[in-house]
Design brief:
Elements (H helix, E strand, L loop, with lengths): L1 H8 L11 H6 L21 E10 L2 E10 L6 E6 L7 H12 L3 E5 L14 H9 L3 H17 L3 E10 L1 H12 L3 E7 L26 E6 L7 H13 L4 E6 L16 H17 L5
Parallel strand pairs: 3-4, 3-5, 5-6, 6-7, 7-8
Antiparallel strand pairs: 1-2, 2-4
Length: 287
């Protein structure tokens, strides 16, 4: 998969200022993603209701992390589609960031059937598990997560999705699946991966079926998703009459938003977050 190629070939920065493995694990981060930055962003849960929960699926209870503003009726719902590294602290923190903006954010552990991916230390052991998840099951899990949020008091008429790395691909595909989706934001989601039994069609192949406005945020130095692929996706969506915008950040590698990794680029990440929140406001997900 091109997202993994981008992850493993991103040019690292100096490892000074990174946590040791034991400290990273104690803080709730995964090890397979590499060294964890000591100054990774931490968003408090003050003013929020947040924590672990379970989402009922057709074949069992799926763990999920949620965060929502306290005392707010019918907040909008934003699904958080994880990277390949499991439901670790970075994904939970992003969920809290969205709740601070007024959303009922839900991050389902989409790979729970494969075990706890945060405990896997080597990416070579991780990828066969992640790549075996069928897209049909992925859609069902996301639908169940949205239904959970609605049942818990969220506003199903204001449904959005945001995703990172493999979760960015998830955004593109879910935008072809759920007609209730109002908007999506895909951070460096793969576009042109070859088909497999579990993932038979790429985001590019399905571009003409996108039903919701999607913002694509990519890095010009991504070694797995080159800018030419992004521009081809942009042209295909435009030709199909779809609502989509793209930003390709100079100097940014794959994972430039992941503030816990060596790939983090603060200036580009800050701009991308502003664009993402503005996108959700434009399409009436966030107030």
């Amino acid at each position: 998969m091109s997202d993994v190629h981008g992850l493993t070939r991103a040019a690292p920065l100096s490892r000074r200022g990174f946590m040791g493995s034991s400290a990273a694990l104690a803080a709730g981060y995964t090890i397979a993603a590499g060294p964890v930055r000591a100054d990774a962003i931490h968003t408090s849960a003050d003013g929020l209701v947040a924590g672990m929960t379970t989402v009922n699926t057709s074949d069992g209870a799926m763990p999920a992390y949620f965060a929502r503003p306290a005392g707010v009726d019918k907040p909008p719902i934003i699904l958080v589609a994880m990277e390949v590294f499991g439901l670790h602290e970075y994904i939970r923190d992003v969920t809290r960031r969205l709740a601070k903006l007024g959303a009922f954010a839900v991050a389902p552990d989409l790979y729970f059937r494969k075990g706890d991916l945060t405990k896997i230390e080597n990416i070579s052991d991780l990828m066969p598990l992640v790549n075996s998840k069928p897209d049909t099951e992925l859609f069902s899990d996301l639908d169940a997560s949205a239904a959970y949020a609605v049942a818990a008091g969220g506003d199903g008429e204001r449904l959005g999705i945001i995703g990172f790395c493999r979760g960015g691909r998830t955004v593109w595909l879910y935008a072809t699946h759920n007609p209730a989706l109002k908007a999506g934001v895909a951070f460096y989601g793969s576009l042109m991966d070859p088909p497999s039994a579990a993932m038979p069609q790429s985001a590019f192949a399905l571009a003409d079926q996108v039903k919701a406005p999607v913002l694509g945020l990519y890095g010009a130095e991504d070694q797995g998703i080159p800018p030419d692929q992004v521009r081809q996706m942009q042209e295909k969506l435009k030709s199909a009459g779809k609502i989509a915008e793209f930003e390709i950040y100079p100097g940014a590698p794959h994972g430039f938003f992941a503030d816990y990794r060596t790939s983090y680029r603060g200036e580009q990440a800050e701009d991308a977050w502003k664009r993402a929140t503005a996108w959700f406001r434009t399409y009436r997900v966030l107030a």
